[in-house]
Amino acid sequence: MSKALLERMIIEETKNLSLEALKEILDFIQFIKTKKFKSFTEKYYEHGVNNNLTELNQMSLIHLEEEFTNYKETYPHEY
Q1: Per the CB 3.0–4.6 Å rule, which of 8, 21, 30, 59 could disulfide with 17?
Q2: Cα separations in angstroms, 62 against 49, 56, 66
């Protein structure tokens, strides 16, 4: 069954429903959208945080390596 056909069937089935029934259907549709969006954002957030931490660790290592390259020559310690 195609999406377009399913959408038409849903519209047809809702034509003679009461206002209260239509409100329930709308509530259910919004629930489904929220549930799918929440699932997507949770996966994205978890993936994004892990990627950001990995990038931060890599950037920190690069910074430290650059910072301490030739450290003894750059910052000689006199006694």
Answers
A1: 21
A2: 20, 10, 6
